[in-house]
Design brief:
Blueprint (H helix, E strand, L loop, with lengths): L28 E2 L27 E2 L2 E7 L11 E5 L6 H4 L11 E5 L3 E3 L2 E3 L10 H25 L7 E5 L1 H12 L6 E5 L20 E6 L7 H13 L4 E6 L8 H20 L1
Parallel strand pairs: 4-5, 4-8, 8-9, 9-10, 10-11
Antiparallel strand pairs: 1-3, 2-3, 3-5, 6-7
Helix pairs in contact: 2-3
């Protein structure tokens, strides 16, 4: 049984506000966007957090943080990794997940659509709530907003192959949804602590260009339950999707070091497939 390691634990709370954010072990190079940021698009009457106001560039209505890993040249042709944060988090907070990644890549960290406490939210319904239809509608809305932004960034930036998408909690749900409903955009999907609700399950067999999916999930997750994710993975498998579920015994809604190591290994394998084509 894997144990949650107290020292060095990376705790990324996607469905609850986080007490602390992960600290990068080495600096990432932030890439400044060539275009002037567009105005923040928020719901009427909702003010964005002061510290986040108009600091990030945007494309197709989605604000994002862009970084490069392993000392890469920001202007070089690089593979792209899209990393989607969870509820109450931010691109800056989630960047620590890939801070010491040892392969050159361009990391795009989109910012969620609506202000939420100290951070941002992709959709208003939580996985633990009973409104599954409302949750699915929120996930679909956010995915349909993200997809054209990712497609545009892939065109704007010098990019090798199709992007890899990953995300935690709300971001994990979006990674699932993007892989199933916008799969032509991606080379691989790696959701963490995520779930694809039944209303979003595919109604037809997987297309030939559907990306492989590896889901990472703790079986003691109380925020995004393990069993529904297990059921979603089984359904996707019967629909012809190449999907695996990596299970972490005794782990809750968190990304402990062993899960993170497995995630980074999966990203390396996905990058190797991109480079081999």
């Amino acid at each position: 049984m894997r144990r949650l390691i107290a020292l060095g634990l990376i705790l990324l709370a996607g469905c609850e506000p986080r007490a602390s954010e992960p600290k990068p072990t080495q600096p990432l190079e932030r890439v400044e966007a060539p275009a002037k940021p567009e105005p923040d698009a928020v719901e009427p009457g909702v003010e964005p957090p002061v510290e986040a106001a108009a600091e990030l560039p945007s494309v197709a209505g989605v604000h994002y943080l862009e970084l490069v890993t392993a000392g890469a040249d920001p202007h070089a042709e690089l593979p792209m990794i899209v990393a989607i944060h969870g509820l109450g988090d931010s691109p800056e907070g989630f960047a620590g997940l890939l801070a010491d990644f040892d392969r050159p890549a361009r990391v795009i960290l989109p910012r969620a659509l609506d202000p939420y406490q100290p951070g941002w939210s992709w959709f208003p319904i939580r996985a633990r709530d009973n409104d599954i239809e409302g949750l699915a509608a929120g996930i679909e809305r956010a995915a349909n907003t993200l997809a054209p932004a990712i497609a545009e960034l892939t065109k704007q930036r010098p990019t090798v192959g199709k992007p890899i998408v990953t995300g935690f909690s709300q971001g994990g749900m979006l990674a699932f949804c993007l892989a199933v409903h916008h799969g032509q955009l991606f080379s691989a999907a790696l959701p963490i602590g995520g779930w694809l609700p039944p209303p979003l399950w595919p109604k037809s067999p997987a297309d030939t260009d559907a990306p492989p999916i590896i889901a990472f999930h703790g079986d003691d997750d109380r925020a995004v339950r393990y069993q529904p994710t297990q059921q979603a993975v089984a359904h996707l498998q019967t629909s012809g999707y190449r999907v695996e579920l990596e299970t972490y015994a005794g782990i809750g809604h968190a990304i402990p070091p062993d899960m993170r190591d497995d995630l980074l290994a999966a990203i390396r394998e996905a990058l190797a497939r991109i480079e081999s084509h």
